[in-house]
Specification:
Elements: H1 2-11, H2 39-59, E1 71-73, E2 78-88, H3 92-100, H4 108-115, E3 119-130, E4 146-156, E5 165-176, E6 182-189, E7 203-205, E8 209-217, H5 221-226, E9 237-247, H6 254-267, H7 269-277
Parallel strand pairs: 5-7
Antiparallel strand pairs: 1-2, 2-9, 3-4, 4-5, 5-6, 6-8, 8-9
């Protein structure tokens, strides 16, 4: 029996973990962005990022780690940060509006709060909203279930000894899942050196960074059946998970340290979100969230 069990175990395929990050392949690389790239390709790339970020967000539930601290994973060739918070008595609509502004489609205000007076500017280069089939969204009164934007932000990252402005050029994709109980928002750096706008001073660009937020309503099933109002805060419980990672270069370098600091700063956004929600901002009607 012992030998047969051993041989049976040998015949079973090994359990595969996450693939090692490659700076030449998706989702870790976005090397070929052009302003004329079709919207459907941006949406397709966004869907792939959502799938990956949700997998990593959920992989961390119950895992032991240092919340908000960047962790180096040599086997996967990434440095990652994962932070989660369970928010009770808060609806998914309120979380979405707090993260993404009154229209639930912008991140400007949130980045402004996160980076404070270090933020030097943000630019929206392109924006496209779509329904679940990828067709153009035509109802401005409702939050689109799919949204892809191209943007850039600049912030002061100077130290005592060096003046530095850093830039992140990114794809921003929002995905409202079909059950309307989960929303994922992902950001992926553009990893080329092509300038977006002319600069009068030297700007260093972040590359091979991706991050995102999974917002999940985890009310008990019986509560969902009995109370179908998404905006009923008293009956709501929402888990917000931030996941960010940097695909490491073959050799350790200064850019890795800068990416680590940036990811850890982004990780503090979950605590910032909790503080903002405590201020009781106006609610976004549940009817605005559509499939």
């Amino acid at each position: 029996m012992r030998s047969s069990r051993t041989s049976a175990n040998k015949s079973m395929p090994p359990v595969l973990g996450p693939a090692a990050a490659s700076r030449l392949a998706a989702p870790w690389a976005f090397l070929n962005y052009e302003p004329t790239i079709p919207v459907d390709l941006l949406l397709e790339r966004g869907v792939g990022l959502v799938r990956y970020v949700r997998q990593e967000c959920h992989r961390g539930h119950g895992a032991s780690s240092s919340p908000g601290r960047a962790i180096k994973d040599g086997a996967r060739n990434v440095m990652h940060v994962r932070v989660a918070a369970d928010l009770h008595g808060v609806s998914i609509s309120r979380v979405l509006r707090t993260l993404a502004g009154p229209t639930a489609t912008s991140f400007d205000d949130f980045f402004d709060r996160l980076l404070g007076d270090k933020l030097e500017g943000m630019t929206l280069h392109r924006n496209a909203c779509a329904d679940v089939h990828g067709r153009p969204w035509v109802d401005p009164s409702r939050v689109p279930p799919r949204m892809a934007s191209m943007g850039s932000l600049y912030y002061d990252d100077s130290s005592l000894f060096k003046k530095v402005t850093r830039e992140l050029v990114y794809l921003d994709y929002m995905h409202i899942h079909s059950d309307k109980r989960s929303i994922t928002r992902v950001f992926k750096s553009v990893d080329s050196d092509d300038p977006t706008t002319p600069h009068k001073k030297h700007v260093e660009r972040h590359k091979h960074i991706l991050f995102g937020y999974c917002i999940d309503d985890f009310r008990h099933l019986e509560d969902r059946n009995d109370h179908d109002d998404d905006d009923d805060d008293d009956k709501s419980s929402v888990r917000v998970t931030f996941y960010g990672e940097y695909a490491m270069a073959p050799e350790p370098c200064r850019l890795g340290r800068e990416a680590k600091h940036f990811l850890e700063k982004l990780g503090t956004s979950v605590q910032l979100l909790q503080r903002m929600l405590a201020c009781h901002p106006p609610k976004l009607s549940a009817s605005h969230i559509t499939q």
